[in-house]
Structure formats: C-alpha cells, structure tokens
Design goal:
Elements (H helix, E strand, L loop, with lengths): L13 H8 L8 H11 L12 H9 L2 H19 L5 H21 L5 H8 L3 E6 L2 E6 L8 E5 L7 E13 L1 H4 L5 E3 L17 E2 L4 E13 L5 H11 L6 H30 L4 H15 L4 H17 L3 E3 L3 H7 L3 E4 L11 E7 L2 E5 L6 H4 E3 L6 H13 L4 E4 L5 E4 L2 H12 L4 H7 L2 E8 L4 E7 L17 E7 L1 H5 L2 E6 L2 E4 L2 H16 L3 E10 L10 E10 L6 H10 L3 E5 L4 H11 L9 E2 H4 L4 H7 L5 E3 L3 H13 L4 E5 L5 H6 L2 E5 L5 H6 L2 E3 L4 H41 L9 H11 L1 H7 L25 H26 L3 H20 L14 H19 L1 H7 L6 H34 L1
Parallel strand pairs: 9-22, 9-25, 18-21, 22-24, 23-24, 25-26, 26-27
Antiparallel strand pairs: 1-2, 1-3, 3-7, 4-5, 4-6, 4-7, 8-27, 10-11, 10-21, 11-12, 13-14, 15-16, 16-17, 17-20, 18-19, 20-21
Helix pairs in contact: 3-5, 4-5, 4-10, 9-10, 9-26, 10-26, 10-27, 11-26, 12-26, 14-15, 22-23, 26-28, 26-29, 26-30, 28-31, 29-30, 29-33, 30-31, 30-33, 31-32
C-alpha cells in the first residue's frame, strides 16, 4: 500500500512524492480510493479494548479478603441451616461483601477516555480531490494519495506532504509541545533526520491551520500517522499502580494468609483438647471475620475523597482517588518548562543597538528610566528605530481591555515587542497606520526570517540609516541572528551606517550567543530602503540590532523547587525547548547548576534502555525531546525504582502521563487528550501547586497509616481473644460474626474516619518520601500492631476468665470491653507523641466520633430490640465499671509505651 511505509516524505520533493504515491492533479479515482481504503483500512485511530463492567465487577469479587468473607458467609449459612435458624450472620456478611465490591467497582469503572479523545481530534470533514473534482468527505474515507485542501480554521485530517502553500501557518502545540504557530513551505526538501517539530513541508493529523492556504497529498492515515504513533504509545503505556494500591494488595494477601494459618492452628489444637468440631468451626468463622478489616476500603475511599477536596482548594483537581496518596509517595517530578516553571509570557529584557547594551527596567513612566545602559548610552534615533521595527515587523495585536491592562493576541514573541514599545511611549496603532504594510514574506523555517515592506514616503524610518536620498519603501527583516547577519553588509554605528567588517560581524554573533546563553530568545532586526515591493528580500541589508526576550520563571518556582529538594523529591525538566534556554531557567530556579550536563533528544535516540536507566539517575534536564522519548524517560525512572509524577499539556505528552504513577495535566493550556490520560489536572498550570498537592498526599498517607495501625491493632486483639476461648476450655462463642462486623464497621470505622481529619505536619518537607517498595507495615508499624494486639488480647482474656468464674455474662462483657478499649486506642493513635503533648481540640471530629460510638455501643446493651438482635445482655453498674476499667488499662499502656519510646530516643541521641 503506497504511503503507509515508514518513508521520510519530508526528505523527497513534491514531484517524487506524487510519483511514489501514484497520484496526479486529478486526484484519485473513486475505484482506486476504494481499493486503497480496503487495503489500509479507514483513517481512524485503533482503540484499545476496554474492560466490560462485568469484568471489572468480577475483578472486585476476586479480592482475597472478599473471597474469604464470601466463604465465611456460605459456611455460616450452611451451619445455621443445619441447626434450623435463619442466618443473620451470613446475610450481614454478604451485604458487606456487596457494598465493598460496589465501592471498588465505582472507582474502577471510570474507563480510560484518553484514546476516545484522541480519535475525536482526527475526525473532521475535509476537502478532497477525487475524479478531477473537489468534494467534502469524512476524514475516515481518506487514503494515501488523496489531494486535500487546507484553509484557515481547518483541522488537518491526515499526515500530508505539502504541494503548494500560501502564507500557511499551523498550530502544532498539541502534537509537538511547541506553542508558537509554525510556518509551512511546500518547496523545501529537508534532511531525513529532521525532527517532527521542524518538518516545515509536512502537515500532521490533529493540528490546526491558523492562517493561509495550502494543498497537500496524503502520505499516511490512521495508525500510520504521527498521531497514530502517539495513540500506539498511549495504548502500550503501563498505567502504573500507585504505591498504596500495591501496599493494600499485599496487606490483603498477608491478612488472608494469617487468618487461614490461625484458623487451622485453633482447629487442630481444639480437636486435640476434645472441643466439638461444630463449635470449632463457628469459632473459626468468627476469627476469619475478625481478621478482615471490613470497614477499611470505605475508610480509605472517604479519606482519599477528603484529600481531593483539600487539593482542589490548592489548585489541584484529582481525577482518580488513588492519585491522592500516590502524590505523597512521589520521588521524582518530571516537569515541562513553559507555563509550569515559567510564566509562559515572553517579555523583552535586553536590547543591543549601535555599541550600546541596554537592559529593560520596570519603570514605565519614561523611556530614560525604562532602558538602563550597561556602559555607553544608545543613540536615541537608533533605539527608536529598533523598537519601531519590532512593532511593524510583527502580526500580534494589543487589544485594550481596560485602562491598565491589555490583552495580547498573537505569538507571545511578537506580543513582547509591542509591549516594550508601548512602555517606551510609542503608539502601536498610530505607527501601523502611518507606515502601512505593502507586502509580507512570512517567517519560514527555511529562511529563518520574516520580512515586511512598509510605506515610508517621508523617509522618517530611513533617517537613522543616514543614506543619501529616500526610497518610497523600507524593507524590515526579523529573524535568527545568524540568518539576518549573513545578509547584512552594513550596520548602524553611533555616527551612522558603517561597513560591517569581519571583526564587527563576529562581535555581533558573539553578542547574540551570550544573550542566548543567558536563556534569552534572541531576535535580530535589519532593514534597507527599496523602490519596489517586489524587491527580493535576500539582497544586502543594514544591521539595526538585537532584542532579547525571556519567558521569566514563576516567582514561586524557585521556592517550590527548594522545597522539593529538601523533601527528598527530585525535579527533572523535560522540554522541547532549546538546551541553552532550558539550562538557564533551571539554573535560575535552582533545579540544576550551569555545569550540570544536558541531554537532548538526538542523544536519547542512540541510548539503549540500560544506558538510559543510568543516564536518568544523574541528568536533570532533557531538551528537544520527542513524545516517545518522554515515555522512555519515565519508564527508565520507574525501572530504577522511582515513583514518578509527570506533567504535560499536549497530545504528545499523553503516553508519558498515562505511564507515570501520577500523570499531571495542565488545566489552562492542556489538551483534552492530556487531561483524560492524567490522574490530576493542575488548575493554574503552576509547579508550586504540584508541591502543595504532594504535601496533601503526604498527609493522606500518614493518616492512612494512622488508622491502619488502629484498625489492625484492634483486629489482632479480637482474633487472639476469639481463638483463645476453646484453648482455655471455655464453651460458647466470645463474639458472634455479627458482633465482630459491628466492631469492624462502627466502633472501628467511625473513629478511623475521624483520624483521617488529623491536621498535617507544617514541616512535612523535613521528611523524606516513603520508599517505593515500602510495605504498609514498615517503620515499626507491623511490630506496633502485633504488640498492641497482644496486650489488648491479654487484658480481654484476663477479664473473660474472671467474668466466667464469677458467673457474669462474660460474652457481653468481652464484647463491651473490646469496643470501649478501641475508643482509647483511637485517641492514642492520633499521634506518636503522648496525649499530654498534643493539642486536645486540634481534631474535634475524633472526640465526637469517640463519644458517638460509645453511646451506640451502650445502646446495644440497653435497647431491647438491639440487644436481642446482637445477642447481648444488659450489664449492671458493677460489671459495666469493670469493662470501663479494663478498657482504660489499654490506654494507659499505650501512653506509657510512648513515654518509654521518647526516653529511649533521648538516650540514643545522648550516646
């Protein structure tokens, strides 16, 4: 099939391209188009297969903890049926299973829409030449060899090689990441290794025509286009699970394995002691229910939702709940430069005219204060000519929208030229009215310049040139310093025009390179009088001067980068911009110093995966990168064990956004494709907001660990208590499955939710992020759970033995003590410090939850209907006081343990 092979169409002439595609000016015939369409398929992007709702639900039901609960429910139902009673335990367990499965289903069923949005970019109507006539067809009908017509406002429907172009400019930011409109020229032939962003003779699917007209021949459709290559990357991108998802999966497996081991042990020992098998089976069911934290999924979901609300207030919109905690585990942030670390607003900061160097100040009241000379002052006439040239050789507009504010329209580079002229008290509108444009040669990648011919009958613009006689026109050229200087024979000195000697030419080149090394975008201006607008722009010019523009770093970017480095998070800049500019901005905000090496996209092409893994360990700046290279950088960092956050705004960023643990799309400048692929949308496109979101993520993870240790510490206590009953010769169940569900959902759940409201640490950046492979039980949490669970169980077992010997209703006392003791545990779990050192009312939600839960627990004892349903007995004042006393013993132990830990740390520091 012609056109679908990986040929470099930009590297062949238009005629050769048509020959290879077997296409003529008459266009393809309908029959030929049908054959090619049948062979290549429709001009559409192939979508990855989405999971069905049934598959998602089945995945939830295969969670190890839910499988264990389902097994318990079925066995419980069989036992109750065998004994002729209705199984309220089985019904309650099944309800919990269904609720947890639905909760997970709702989160997982938010299907990935990035590829759907990507297909929408490539589905416009298009003007096609078929059977010697122009007609409108759906873009899906396009085939290689079709001639298409492009006009301002069109969206390009396929990759195509230009045949003709008239002042054609396209916006390719969504594909390449470059914000400026790109000029296109049909006539040029480029080198084979020319990167996509510099292919000026080719147009690409999904990009927009900003101005001009063109005719092109389609060379690739569907998945064969550059947009299709990005779609393929997006389909293959991993969509990495966050650390929390991995830790919770490991937690579920550990709990199920532990529960089954203990159940087997109790049954074997119980049988050796002569306990009835049916009673041991019922105890085993209770133990299995006790070990599973039924309320944990709901508590985590609510905690993450609370985190999303806090993040929205800090300009971070969370699209996937798991991203909230994932942010807290981030170790590397891969960020774009333009608009994220910088303002995305070019401003003129330096001028070079005659022999003068000028920097642009902030004083807009008078020209002498605005331009501050570094040495000799600039001739006023020459300075004004440079400013006027910037106004007249540009297409931007300053549309007034208030007395003190102007809304810019057009290329930011040209807007900056108009803005500095206005600050210098030049009237932009009046200048353009007085010196009318007769002709324009738009900027092209081939010539690296733009030229305009202006009416100057009075010779006002030509006066600084000090030439004999005046021509009716003045041609002004603007462009790359090397390109403009190569066409200049004279320059404007302090005393008028002079010959441009080789030494002076080199001085201007050195000046331009020094400005570029400072991170400036440098524009050169030159002009010459002309008698006719048809005069060729390549003739000799007179050098006027240089303008240096800067996209300034955001004021808060440097502080945010410093906070990242202090918090153990490494910022990495990945940009399509020039390496020198990237390095200058990185140095300005403290991301990297000027001595640190920069890696450019061309170098990455030759790196193996292993070499890239080594490179990303030390390199913090990547410039001139392609979409596939961004994806490779993220994958290499992940292969090194990093938790990666990736920012992006264009379609080209979508694969890397999806691959990263946390994809962050720009809310203001971002495309819909990038937003759909991301986990988080940055509402203000500000790097500092990412750092704020990470602070919230750290808080969420801390709170999750806080209530995990609370819930599991209590559950281990319940488990040991239940398992000890048959081993101690006690008959009957200490706790029924229904009572355990009450504890796990209510007396555990409500305080756990309140623990999620604990305020954050104001000095969070002093702590490093958790290790990517860190277990949920790391940093002493597992030891804490086992130690507290054991002490908890010993207290309750002691109470159980004393109550059983005294003839009191010991199952109800065990149930009550377990529930009340958990309230003290919740109060203690809020901080690593003793409660006496913690602000008492910093979390009023916890106090309210403890009070409410205590009242609900007492209602199970003294409300007859609830007492009958849960199988409890009303306790007398003496028995209730004993329960409260034993419950307080657990709180006393927890606080003494904290004081002991503080003493040990103090002793260790003294040593």
């Amino acid at each position: 099939m012609p056109g679908q092979e990986s040929s470099r169409w930009h590297a062949v002439s238009a005629e050769a391209c048509l020959n290879r595609l077997s296409s003529t000016a008459a266009g393809l015939s309908s029959d030929e188009a049908k054959q090619r369409l049948a062979s290549a398929g429709p001009n559409q992007l192939a979508l990855q297969q989405m999971r069905s709702n049934g598959e998602i639900l089945l995945q939830q039901l295969t969670n190890p903890m839910l499988v264990l609960l389902l097994t318990v429910a079925l066995v419980s139902f069989w036992i109750d049926l065998h004994q002729g009673r209705w199984s309220k335990d089985a019904i309650a367990i099944l309800m919990i299973v269904v609720l947890n499965a639905l909760l997970g289903f709702v989160q997982e069923s938010k299907a990935e829409q990035a590829l759907l949005a990507l297909r929408g970019m490539g589905d416009p109507l298009v003007q096609v030449r078929r059977d010697s006539a122009w007609q409108q067809l759906g873009s899906s009908q396009l085939v290689a060899g079709d001639w298409i017509r492009l006009e301002a406002g069109d969206r390009v429907a396929a990759d195509a090689r230009l045949l003709e172009s008239w002042d054609l400019r396209l916006q390719e930011a969504a594909l390449t990441g470059e914000g400026a409109a790109v000029s296109k020229q049909a006539g040029c032939v480029l080198a084979e290794d020319t990167p996509v962003m510099e292919r000026s003779n080719t147009v690409f699917q999904g990009t927009d025509v900003m101005s001009g007209r063109g005719i092109a021949v389609v060379v690739a459709t569907g998945m064969g286009t550059e947009l299709g290559a990005i779609a393929a990357l997006l389909s293959s991108a991993g969509g990495e699970r966050t650390p929390l998802q991995k830790r919770l999966s490991a937690l579920a497996q550990a709990l199920v394995a532990g529960a089954l081991t203990l159940v087997l042990l109790v049954v074997l020992v119980g049988r050796q002691l002569g306990q009835p098998l049916l009673e041991l089976l019922e105890i085993s069911l209770s133990m299995a229910v006790a070990i599973v934290p039924e309320g944990l999924p709901a508590v985590i979901t609510v905690t993450l939702a609370i985190g999303t609300q806090r993040m929205v207030r800090r300009a971070a919109l969370i699209r996937r709940l798991s991203a909230v905690e994932g942010l807290g585990s981030v170790t590397v942030i891969c960020t774009d430069k333009t608009g994220t670390l910088t303002e995305n607003q070019q401003e003129v900061v330096a001028l070079r005219v005659a022999k003068a160097r000028l920097i642009v100040g902030s004083d807009t009241t008078a020209t002498p204060n605005l331009f501050q000379p570094l040495g000799a002052p600039a001739p006023d006439e020459v300075l004004k000519l440079l400013l006027k040239a910037g106004v007249l050789c540009s297409n931007a507009e300053l549309a007034a929208s208030g007395p003190d504010h102007q809304q810019a329209l057009g290329d930011p580079t040209e807007v900056a030229l108009l803005t500095v002229a206005e600050k210098a008290n030049l009237n932009v509108a009046e200048l353009r009215q007085r010196f009318k444009r007769c002709r324009e040669n738009p900027f092209s990648a081939e010539t690296q310049q733009m030229s305009v011919w202006l009416e100057d009958p009075e010779g006002e613009l030509q006066a600084p040139l000090q030439l004999a006689g005046n021509e009716p026109l003045l041609m002004i050229s603007k462009g790359a310093p090397e390109a403009i200087l190569a066409k200049c024979e004279r320059w404007i000195d302090d005393e008028g025009t002079a010959s441009l000697s080789p030494q002076r030419r080199q001085q201007w080149l050195d000046e331009a390179r020094q400005m570029a090394a400072s991170g400036l975008r440098v524009l050169a201006f030159a002009g010459t009088p002309r008698s006719s607008e048809s005069t060729n722009e390549h003739s000799a010019l007179i050098w006027i001067g240089l303008v240096g523009e800067l996209d300034p770093p955001r004021q808060e970017a440097a502080e945010a980068v410093a906070t990242c480095l202090k918090a153990g998070i490494r910022p990495v800049m990945i940009t399509g911009d020039h390496p020198i500019t990237a390095q200058a901005i990185a140095a300005a905000i403290g991301l990297a110093d000027r001595q640190q090496p920069i890696c450019i996209g061309e170098e990455l092409q030759h790196c193996t995966d292993q070499e890239l893994r080594k490179l990303v360990r030390t390199c913090n700046i990547f410039a001139r990168t392609a979409p596939s290279q961004k994806l490779r950088i993220v994958q290499a960092l992940q292969a090194n064990g990093e938790v990666v956050a990736m920012t992006g705004d264009g379609v080209n960023d979508a694969p890397a956004l999806k691959q990263a643990h946390i994809g962050i799309a720009m809310g203001i400048t971002g495309s819909e494709v990038s937003k759909e692929a991301a986990d988080m949308v940055l509402l203000d496109d500000n790097f500092a907001s990412i750092v704020n979101a990470i602070a919230e993520g750290r808080l969420v993870y801390t709170n999750i660990r806080r209530f995990v240790k609370y819930i599991l510490g209590s559950n281990v206590g319940e488990l040991i208590t239940i398992g000890s009953a048959p081993l101690l010769g006690l008959s009957g169940l200490p706790l029924s499955p229904l009572q355990i569900l009450w504890m796990n959902l209510v007396t555990d759940g409500l305080p756990a939710l309140a623990l999620a409201m604990e305020p954050g640490d104001p000095h969070w950046e002093n702590h490093k992020p958790p290790q990517p492979n860190e277990s949920i039980f790391a940093r002493g949490l597992g030891r804490y759970i086992l130690r507290v669970g054991l002490v908890f169980a010993l207290l309750v077992i002691t109470l159980m033995l004393l109550a059983e010997r005294s003839g009191t209703p010991w199952p109800t006392m065990v149930f009550t003590t377990l529930c009340l003791a958990q309230m003290g545990h919740a109060l203690s779990a809020r901080s690593e410090r003793p409660l006496l050192q913690v602000a008492r009312f910093s979390n009023p939600w916890l106090l309210a939850a403890v009070l409410l839960t205590t009242m609900l627990q007492l209602s199970l004892l003294y409300v007859p209907a609830l007492s009958r349903f849960f199988g409890t007995t009303a306790l007398g004042a003496r028995d209730l006081a004993v329960c409260v006393g034993f419950s307080l013993l657990l709180l006393l132990y927890l606080e003494l343990d904290k004081f002991y830990g503080l003493w040990r740390r103090r002793e260790a520091s003294n040593c």
